[in-house]
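#struct-help
A.M.: can someone run this one for me? Single chain, 72 residues.
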Amino acid sequence: MNLSELIGKYGDDKVEFQNLDQCFDTANMKNGFTKITFGTPQQMGPNGTEKLGLVVWLDRERVAEIIAEEKS
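D.P.: on it. Structure tokens below:
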């Protein structure tokens, strides 16, 4: 199953997303890897955060193009 299939079955209108650029506290580069810490409004419970979070990486320029297309 790919991500778009998962989102389609879950319900696109039920998916929330959080832009890492807008919520990270620190970002440090070490040995070619970036370590990022961030805050989220998701509440913690005994099994982790209330909702499951997934990290999805998208081409920054392509996302900007898509957003610009939606606005026009």
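A.M.: thanks! Residues 6 and 12 are 9 Å apart (CA to CA).
D.P.: also worth noting: The radius of gyration is 15 Å.
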